[in-house]
Design a protein that fits this description.
With 574 residues, the chain is α/β, with parallel strands linked by helices. The chain contains 21 helices and twelve strands. Bound molecules: adenosine-5'-triphosphate (ATP) and magnesium ion.
């Protein structure tokens, strides 16, 4: 995990090194202060030596300023390095997720990907900032304080030998109790984010089904779960300060007791005793900070692992080594294709599919919901890969094509297509970024999108709100069809893409496609018989299998499922 994350430090290596360097300087200088104060008391104040006091005072002032400057430098560099590191982590994850196949995304779930890019990265950022500053400072302070104490009074320093292990053991116990809470808290965050995401994205459904209260309860539950765990973890952590106070008081008492005896015996100066107090405070403080850092590191190790999992995930669909960069025609062949979404699924999503589609042919696909119509067409642009058997486009296995070439030539209007925030034109240009205004107009006319776009106040420059909320369902479908047409594909797949368009307009779109794109193979999935009845051939899907293939008339004649759907829809019209 560390190796994976380390790669994202990149251009922030310099700051990451400067921070500990500045901290080192800061600690060494800062630790001289108690020593100098002791010397100032013993040699200046107690002896009434004014010039000595002035000189030592000045030196103290200079040292304090230098230590402050070094401290500020360390803070700056550590914050800068950690923020940069976090930005790189987010970027690396985001770029990598772009290469994910649908299978990879299914595996992580999109809300978990969002949590990983936000909350988890924040945790790692905080820890990294600690790691290159406080985590250097605390052990350094510990070591320097012990060395300075040894210089002043080796005998009094023995107190630390007794007290420090007791302190470490108590702290370790507290950490051990608190650690198991954090992974649970993270999973709680995942769940809460999922609730929030679902709610915000589906706010229209929430309102129409009057689910506000149920949703609020769901949110309260997931948020309360996090609160409860956090509160318990905090309660345990608050024992920390009690232990620190207790140990600190005991050690100060011990130093007082033994120190006073040494002063009486003449082997210690009063100023030295005061220095010893400061160093003993530093020792325990550093141990306390180390304990806190350790806890934070354990917390963010969980986050780090979640981030590394994303960065190390191998895209399940990758470009072949010597990819084909040209698709000659729109022929599609399914050759004994089998496919499952998950290896443990009981049923095959595609079960021994054999189908040959000629270039320029129009194929209709119909079948009950869940009969794998969308799954079938997802194989053509390699949104998923087959488990066995092969899908061939224009004579070559889809796996041998360059992915971009393949997907440019196989345009799919997905069932749940979305528009992105930006203008309508920008959205259309997803199909072809170099499309001219004329090409955009032609495509929009074929998709019957031009009639409503040209009536909008800003026409093609109209802003599409997030998720396309200011555009009706049928309009959105027509824009997504136009967007697909701009690719000038060899194969065009419309997955229930005109379900929200009225049947009259739908027929016009179909006719426009037939006259303007005669060479393009058209695969039209629909629940409506009228949408596919004019197709050259119709495929009837049932439970992942091709149940029948034929023309409308043939199927009406011989296929019970098809003719019952046709009869039902005919009756509905009346
Ligand atoms: N991403 C996925 N992960 C796991 N299972 C899936 C996934 N997508 C679809 N399935 C399952 O595969 C089967 C076929 O789904 P598919 O979406 O292909 O059906 P469909 O015929 O297009 O249905 P509809 O008419 O409702 O669009 C269903 O049982 C579905 O639950
Ligand atoms: Mg579907």
């Amino acid at each position: 995990m560390i190796n994976t994350l380390r790669k994202s430090i990149r251009q922030y290596k310099k700051q990451s090194l400067l921070s500990p360097l500045f901290v080192t300087g800061e600690v060494i200088i800062e630790m001289l202060i108690p020593y100098l104060v002791g010397v100032l008391i013993d040699n200046g104040i107690l002896k009434g030596n004014m010039p000595y006091i002035t000189r030592a005072g000045l030196l103290l002032l200079i040292i304090t300023v230098v230590s402050l400057v070094l401290g500020a430098g360390a803070s700056y560099f550590s914050a800068h390095a950690a923020a940069g590191f976090a930005a790189n982590l987010r970027k690396d994850m985001f770029y990598h997720v772009q290469d994910f196949s649908f299978e990879n995304i299914d595996k992580f779930s999109s809300s978990s990907l969002v949590t990983r890019m936000t909350t988890d990265v924040n945790n790692v950022q905080m820890s990294y900032q600690m790691l290159i500053r406080i985590a250097v400072r605390a052990p350094m302070m510990l070591i320097v304080s012990i060395i300075m104490s040894l210089i002043i009074s080796p005998r009094l320093s023995l107190i630390f030998v007794v007290i420090a292990p007791v302190f470490v053991i108590l702290m370790a116990l507290i950490i051990k109790c608190v650690n198991p809470y954090f992974p649970k808290i993270f999973r709680g965050y995942d769940r809460m984010n999922q609730v929030v995401r679902e709610n915000v994205r589906g706010i229209r459904e929430v309102k129409t089904y009057v689910q506000e209260e149920a949703q609020t309860v769901k949110f309260k539950k997931s948020s309360g779960f996090i609160y409860k765990l956090f509160a318990t973890a905090q309660k345990i952590m608050s024992l920390n300060s009690m232990v620190v106070m207790a140990v600190l008081s005991i050690s100060n008492l011990a130093i007082c007791w033994f120190g006073a005896r040494e002063i009486v015996g003449g082997s210690l100066q009063p100023g030295q005793l005061i220095s010893m107090f400061s160093y003993s405070n530093s020792v325990l403080n550093s141990l306390n900070i180390l304990a806190m850092i350790f806890t934070q590191l354990v917390v963010s190790a969980a986050s780090g692992r979640r981030i590394a999992d994303v960065i190390n995930e191998k895209p399940s669909i990758e470009n072949p080594r010597k990819p084909l960069k040209h698709v000659t025609n729109g022929e599609v062949i399914f050759d004994h294709v089998n496919f499952k979404y998950n290896p443990d699924d009981r049923n095959l999503a595609l079960n021994d599919i054999n189908l040959k589609i000629e270039p320029g042919e129009t194929i209709g696909i119909i079948g009950k919901t869940g009969s794998s119509k969308s799954t079938l067409v997802a194989m053509i642009p390699r949104l998923y890969d087959t488990d066995s058997g092969a899908v061939r486009v224009s004579g070559h296995n889809v796996k041998s094509y360059d992915l971009k070439t393949l997907r440019d030539n196989v345009a799919v209007v997905l069932q749940n297509n979305v528009l992105f925030s930006g203008t309508i034109k920008e959205n259309l240009k997803w199909g072809n970024e170099n499309a001219t205004d004329e090409e955009i107009l032609t495509a929009s006319k074929i998709a019957h999108a031009d009639d409503f776009i040209s009536e909008m106040p800003d026409q093609y420059e109209t802003i599409v709100e997030q998720g396309g909320n200011n555009i009706s369902g049928g309009q959105k479908q027509r824009i997504t069809i136009a967007r697909a047409l701009l690719k000038k594909p060899k194969i065009l797949i419309l997955d229930d893409s005109t379900s929200a368009v009225d049947t009259h307009t739908e027929r016009e779109i179909r006719e426009a496609l037939a006259t303007n794109m005669p060479e393009t193979t058209k695969i039209i999935i629909s629940q409506r018989i009228v949408s596919i009845k004019d197709a050259d051939r119709i495929v009837v899907m049932d439970e992942g299998k091709i149940q029948d293939i034929g023309t409308h008339d043939e199927l009406i004649e011989r296929n019970a499922l098809y003719s019952s759907i046709a009869k039902f829809q005919e009756e509905q019209k009346k």
